[in-house]
Design brief:
Number of strands: 8
Shape: globular
Number of helices: 10
Order of helices and strands: HEHEHEHEHEHEHHHEEH
Strand content: 5-15%
CATH class: Alpha Beta
Largest sheet: 8 strands, mixed
Structural class: alpha/beta
Helix content: 40-55%
Strand order of the largest sheet: 3-2-1-4-5-6-7-8
Distance between the termini: 72 Å
CATH superfamily: NAD(P)-binding Rossmann-like Domain
Number of domains: 1
Length: 308
């Protein structure tokens, strides 16, 4: 009897975990022949899985990475899995504004098109600073992608209809922005939450500014993913989180589905500025839909990165 109860309980836990990890898959088979896709941090995790999926659809895929060796290894894997040779990497350090400007200058000189920009790279909550003295989370997750997108907007408008997809996280709901201290860097978890909220406001204001210009924007919560973000922490924490991720988180291939959905599905065009999760538009907390705050953050970000 005890054995039967143990087996039943184990089966119930397995089914519960499987239900918790269920995710929708992007079923749209749209081709992207002749399109160019730029993916920041495309050398690992969701970025790499997205690169494989879009290269398989015929797109020219450019991934960015700080480490040339890791980038070259990723490009070889993406080419092999996608059966496409139209994949390359370019150096970019989102924690350095000069690196971003140099990258954009080179990209605009060498690439004739930009149809889909995927702001995928990100930093977890860490007590560290960028080369320009911004908190690492806010500097990379928001300001780096803010500057990158603005410097590439000309290409995006020329190739309209085009799309900007920025990865965020549902953890945004646990914090609000403090314009007296946007560079907040005391509690890593809250710093990360604020950067993800900034991604959402950025997407909304970008969609408003690009209305009627052929550029649409989407923020995406990919779910909780079995990625390598724990490499920034202690070995003990990495071991603990590996167990947690195996039990509750989804593989990167599954996590990439909503990003792919926003990159290829035509129906999302009518929801520019929207927040997507599990391959569909999702509701936001009321405070995350304030156009006044979105505009204020945009203007503050322009000043911080030197665009104003």
């Amino acid at each position: 009897m005890f054995l039967l109860c143990t087996i039943a309980a184990s089966l119930l836990c397995f089914l519960l975990l499987k239900w918790m990890k269920r995710r929708r898959m992007c079923m749209d088979l749209k081709r992207l022949d002749g399109k160019t896709v730029l993916i920041t941090g495309g050398n690992s995790g969701i970025g790499k899985e997205t690169a494989v999926a879009l290269a398989m659809r015929g797109a020219r895929v450019v991934i960015t990475c700080r480490d040339p060796e890791r980038a070259e290894k990723a490009v070889r894997e993406i080419k092999m899995r996608s059966h496409s040779l139209n994949v390359l990497h370019m150096h970019l350090d989102l924690a350095n504004l000069r690196s971003i400007r140099d990258f954009c200058h080179k990209f605009l000189q060498t690439e004739k098109r930009l149809d889909i920009l995927i702001n995928n790279a990100g930093m977890p909550g860490v007590l560290d600073w960028t080369d320009d003295s911004f908190s690492m989370c806010f500097g990379v997750n928001h300001l780096g992608h803010f500057l990158l997108t603005n410097l590439l907007l000309g290409h995006l408008k020329e190739c309209a209809p085009s799309r900007v997809i920025t990865l965020t996280c549902s953890l945004y709901k646990y914090q609000k922005l403090d314009f007296q201290d946007l560079n907040y860097n005391l509690l890593p978890f809250f710093t990360y939450c604020r950067s993800k909220l900034a991604n959402i406001y950025f997407t909304q204001e970008l969609a408003r500014l690009m209305e009627g210009k052929g550029v649409t924007a989407y923020s995406v919560h990919p779910g909780y993913i079995q990625s390598n973000w724990t490499c920034h922490y202690s070995i003990l924490f990495q071991m603990l989180m590996k167990v947690v991720m195996l039990m509750f988180f989804v593989p990167c291939e599954v996590g990439a589905q909503t990003v792919i959905h926003c990159a290829v599905v035509d129906d999302v065009n009518q929801h520019s500025g929207g927040y997507f999760s599990d391959c569909r538009q999702s509701a936001l907390q009321p405070f995350a839909k304030d156009p006044g705050i979105a505009k204020k953050l945009w203007e503050a970000s322009e000043r911080l990165v030197g665009l104003a």
